[in-house]
Design goal:
Length: about 110
């Protein structure tokens, strides 16, 4: 057996992130938009209007077909909210989520599904 190769292999440092102290709150949202609307446009609205507690946005579904008007598509996202100093209240999340919905409707003409 040759053990020299295993011993000579460089070590890779691993860095762990501390677990969050307070829980996250997620909300899903599905939008019906013009097929020309890009994910980048939607993400820009999320980041501009999502508020201080919006930590992550994930696109999890794109659909065009039955039950969607011609020239339209559906985009579905999960929004993750979290505070670092305390647990978010339902009102804080609802206010932030409502602002995002309004911005999507006025900014890109999205219909919330």
């Amino acid at each position: 057996m040759r053990f020299g190769c295993a011993i000579a292999a460089p070590r890779q440092e691993k860095y762990a992130q501390p677990a969050p102290k307070f829980p996250a709150v997620t909300r899903d949202i599905a939008l019906q938009v013009d097929e020309q609307v890009t994910n980048d446009q939607v993400m820009a609205i999320f980041h501009e209007h999502g508020g201080a507690f919006l930590q992550d946005v994930t696109l999890f579904d794109v659909y065009a077909g039955d039950h969607i008007a011609a020239g339209q598509k559906s985009l579905a996202y999960t929004l993750t909210y979290r505070r670092d100093d305390q647990t978010l209240t339902e009102d804080e999340v609802t206010q932030a989520f409502d602002k995002v919905k309004a911005a999507l409707q006025t900014g890109i003409g999205a219909a919330i599904r």
